[in-house]
Each structure stands twice: as C-alpha cells, then as structure tokens.
Amino acid sequence: MNTRKLLMGLYCALGSIIIFLLVPRGCSAQVSSAMLSKGQGSTGGIQHKTWTEYGGSNDQSKYVDFKQINKKNINQLQVAWTYSTKDNVSTYKVNPIIVDNIMYLQGKNNSLIALDVATGKEIWIHANLNIKSKRGVNYWESKDRKDRRLIFNVGNTMQEIDATSGKSILTFGDNGSVDLTEGYGLDPATISSPTSNTPGQVFEDLIILGSATGEGYFSTPGDIRAYNVITGKEEWIFHTIPREGEFGYNTFPPKAYTYIGGVNTWGEMSVDAKRGIVYCPTGSATFDYYGADREGQNLFANCILALDARTGKRLWHFQMVHHDMWDFDATAAPQLITVTHNGKKVDAVAQASKQGFLYVFNRVTGKPLWPIPERPVTQSKTPGEHSWPTQPFPTVVPPYNRQLITAKDINPFWPAEKRDDMLKRLAAGHAGIFEPLSTEYETFIAPGANGGALFGNTAANPAKGIVYVSYQESPSVYKLGKSQQGGGRAAAALSADDAAKIQAIYTEQCQGCHGADKTGGIGPSLVNVNNRVSYQSFEALMLSGRGRMPEFTHLTGPVLNDLYRYLSGPTAGRGGGGGGGRGRGNVQSTTLPMPDGPVVASGGAPVKDKGRVRVPRGYPEGFPVPAERYDQRASTTYFGLGFPDLFTPPWSGLAAYDLNTGKLKWNRALGNVDKFGKNTGYPKGTQNKGVLVTSTGLVFATCVDGGIYAYDADNGNMLWSYKLPREPDGIPAMYEYKGREYLVICSTSTRIDPGKSEDETFRGYTVLALPEIKK
Questions:
Q1: Which of 18, 43, 375, 421 lies 20 to 30 Å from 208 when distance is taken between CA atoms?
Q2: Contact in structure between 734 and 64 (CB atoms under 8 Å)
Q3: What pTM does this model have?
Q4: Integer Cα distance of 225 and 237 in angstroms
C-alpha cells in the first residue's frame, strides 16, 4: 500500500467515526449521506462571521460572532455613513448583503446598487429593475470565487446579475430569465404571482424559492421549487397542495390543487447546511377565512415543513393550524438551535407563529421537545363550513402574546365613547384564539391576522439555545358576509361602509402616486379605470407590479374587487375592456429616468411577451360548488385589522426564550408612544421589525416608532437606542471590514416627524460604527 492510499484510508475512517458520533441515532441514511457533501453550501460566507445572505446566514439566526461592539461601548455608536435611496415613491424593506468590500442593496427607483462598505460610495448601479423581492436578494459564488451572482425575481421571472460587473447574466435560463409561471404542471396562463417578496435560500448550486400567490379564491398553489443556479433549470418541486398519489392528498377534496391556492412560503426559510435540510413555514389555504370548498385538515397549510434540500423530498412536517379560518400564516424564520434536553445535546428547530405560540422540535426527527396535545375547539356554525374539531396547543413553552380579549383588556386611553362601544360589541360577540368566524356576530381573535410574529421577527443565539421573538399585540375583529366576487368581474356599486374602507386603503396605498382625486401624479390617472383595463389585468398588475409600481400581494380577492369598483365608472359590472387580460407582468420598463451615478445597465433581461390570455381558475367539473361564499366583508375594517391598539399597552414586545428549559427568560415592551409614557410598545403592524443578535450579549431590535434599540441579552435591560427619521423597514445587518464593525439599517417608510416634508426627511440606509481609532 502506497502512502497516498494509506492517507486516504485514514481519512475515510476518520470521516466515518465523525459521522457516527454526530448523526443522532435513528437518523435516516439519507440524512447521514447529506453530511458527507459540501456542508456550508456555495455562498462564500463563514457561518455567523459574514452577512452574505438575507438573514445573515443559511440558518437565518440573524446572529453574528463579532467581538468589537459590546455592552460597555454600545453608547459610543455613531453614524459612519449614510446612503440615500433618492426615491420618494418606493418603500424598501431590504436586508442588505455584504460580500468582501461590497454591500448590495436596493434604491433609486427600484435599482440594484453595489456600494463600498467603508464609505458608501457607489461602485455600480443596475437601474430600473423593479425587483419583486423587496426584502433583499440572494448571492451565490463558485468554489473558485470567479463566478459571483445575485439572484432575484422580476415580475413573474427569476433573473441574475453578475455581482462584480452589475450586468445581467444572459446565459441563465432563456436569454437571462426563467419564467416562474411554468413548471407547475398546470396551465401557465392560470398562474399568478409565483414569486415572493422574500429572497429564497441558496444551498450548494440550488436556489430554493417560495412564493406570494395571493389569498383570494382561486389563487395559485404555493409550491416550493428549486432551480439550478447556473442553468435556471427546475431541479425539484414540492406540491404544498398534494396531487393524486401524494401524501396528504386526502386532507383536501379531490383535485383541490386545481382551484385552491396559497399554502405558500412567502416568509423566511432556514437551511441546516450540514444535513442538507430546508425548513419552510407555510401559509393558509385559500380562501383564508372560509373553507367550505376545502373540507378537511388541509395539508400542508400552516405547517413547518422539513424537506431534503437536494431533492425536495418531505422528511417530516408539523401542522400548527388545521383547516385554518383565521389567516394564521407561518412566516417567521425557523430558528436552528442546539439545546440540552433531558441531559442530552439536541439539535432543535423553533417556529414562532401569529398565534403567539413557539413550537419546538427535534430538527432531524420532527418530534416535539415538549408535548403539543390536540385540544377540542369551538366548531363553526357558518353555512357550509366544517371546521376541524381540535387544534394543537404547545405546553411548557409559554406564549409571548395575549390570546384572549376580555373587558379588562380594552385600551384605557381610548375616548370613553369609543371604549364603551367596543365593550358592548365584545359582550355581544365571541372571543378566543381559535373561535370560528360567524355571519351572526363579531369574533374577537387575539393575536389576529397581523399579530404575533411574522418575517424578520425571530433570531437566535444558536449554540446557547436562546431564541428571540419580536411580536405585535394586534387583535382582529371579524364578521363574515356574503362574498361579492363575481368570477373576476366588478359587481354592483359599493355600499357606503365598503366605500369608506376602500377609501382608507386607497389613501394609504395609492394616493401618494395617483393623487387624492385619483387623477394622477407620479403615477397615471385611475379615474374610470375599468374603461381601460379589465378586472383580470387589474388584478394581475396589482399582484405582480410593474415599472415603479410595487406588487400588493397582501390585498386579498375581495379587497382587489372592491378597489376596482371604487376606481371604476358607471360601466363597471360589464367587465370594462381595453386590457384584454394579456399577461404582460414580465415586460421590463425602460422608460424610467436614469438615476445619477455609475449606471452599468437599465432594466432586466429581455423577457418575451408570450401573449398569454389570463385564464381564471375555477372549480373542477362535478365539484359541489357552495351555494354561497363568504369573506370578511362584514367586518368593520378589511381583514379585521382596524384596532391595533385595542389592547391595553404594551402593544408590541421582544421576548427571549431559553429553550434548554422551555422558560421565558424575559419579555420587554418594544417601542414607545411618548404621550402614554415609557414602555408602551407601539400599536402598528409587526411586519417591518427586525432582530439581530451578537456574541457579545447584545440584541438589536427595530420598531416602527423609528427606533433601533439594543438590549442586554441576559436580562432584557435596554442599553442604547437611536432614532431614525423614518420607520426602519428591513432587518438590520452587521458586518466587519478591516477590523471595524458596522451596523446597517434600512429606513425608507413613513417619516417619524410629520412636521417635515418628504423632501426634508432622509430616506435610505444608515450605517453605524464605533469611533474610528486614529493611528
């Protein structure tokens, strides 16, 4: 035996011993073999030492192992540099990524921008991309680091840019793009919004994608897919609404995938790179609030799914809500941690939810670390609805949210008339976390559809088994009414109540571009829109976006239908015309003005207009169509979200869990409403908060009051805060360059000081660091 063979033999023997010691007993051979492969994947970063991915690293822990910024010097943080997006229209929720000396972010009318990490100087700008994944992009590099790519979604396509030059990679897919409406095994013309606001996950040479397919009747199934980073070829697909012969098929009516949608991962995925497992939280099946046409348990809605990252094979799942009727999507990143449980080291995964529950499982087997029993819940009496008789309730680990609304919980700061009215309504209604919605009375749900934890709201110290959850105490008040959706056509004139609700939505979402009187401004006139655009084209545009217009996937079918009628003239109801329903959501806009700076390209890859006529999905032949369909139309506000401050304060918080014991370490109010005193939290949606954890014992959290706060990880004491001029939107990122550590926050949303104009208020990225030591 020669020396080389001897060394190879020793190497293989040593590898076998390591695998035997590391793989838990009972672990399948499939998982064992995964540990022999590439390990950390192909992102070029070192786990927790870099920030080369959305969320920092594969495990989405938002944790950095840095030593410079600590509890003693945190008060010395100061602005190192800023970067203005120079964009008074778009709101960005970007978590920047940093590779070597370059930071990649979005700004300047939906451009992708590369900056010098030490100074903020522009290196290149790829203009007018209209990237759909507004929260960030993905990065991949080859082993020799010569091939570096940024991966993102534009319209209904996936595209790539050379991370060094900033130019589109036209060898990817079909002349630079992959049509994501294809590959479902369904008619591509029926597919809408197959892309997500949230970046996917790069693992080895794969990009794994979720979707934001809409939440109305007949939306698109939210299948999870993986593509080859080099070629754009679809490598695997996991059907979240099972097909014939697949596990879970009988938990829906037959052929449910042909008309049921949703069940999508529109939030964050996490990857165990060593084992090759991707953990995907999924959303509700459609329609969110009424499930007469989807009788059954409805797998894999509202699940945490553990899939083989290389093949898409299901390894295990746990459903957190059966037959969801409350829009309890799971979107927060599953946190991959190592804990001591029953005297043994266990690799675990913790999933936070809208319900206020934190579910904890063995990462490999899917077995709960503590019992999660099924308990009977109230059954629905709404015509046609058959709710599930039980729901899972975690034990040992306490909830971070309040889960019941009582009279003593009603906001004491409300005017007496408003408070008395709500007390009467509460007394006449029903309350409970799994209380079914009704056509007869109001249902008070806490947390509601916008409460609990959502994307960006979880982080961890993985090795210590500590998980942090940012959450919102935002109840929902619902009442069901008959749906007026008419097969995609506008119906009768809006009632006064519905018109008022839609007016509020228009003011918040549309007025800034289209004017208070709808006659236009930055955007075109929307007066009598039905005379120019069919409802089908209007819906496709709202869900996919185009040019400077972002997508509005959070607006459900009933709201889009009513918004169309609100913007329509007297011919509404006959379907309008003009638009023809052609699926042009992929066409790149090149008419936008060029931003100043080093522009290397404008628009994305050239995308062919395939001339498809949008084909609405419908029930399969012979399906027992419900006599009536219901939605939350009768609620005082759409989605039941009109009362984010219904509770007594605090209205939002940050909780720390020690999952070695299952105990809550601490729970603190996050944010402030000054007129009510300190530690009140903040009564406004939770989606745009982010959490970041350091090895020096700091927990950073952002809040819509404009603040970024630093807490002591051990006891939750606030150590430092900094006020930004606008609401911080993306997850904070942290990186190190030439021995100096930097903290970067995106804040491009609502200005904090209403006394200042839009032009006077900085919109962009703020980078903080300790004072530079003079040599």
A1: 18
A2: yes
A3: 0.87
A4: 4
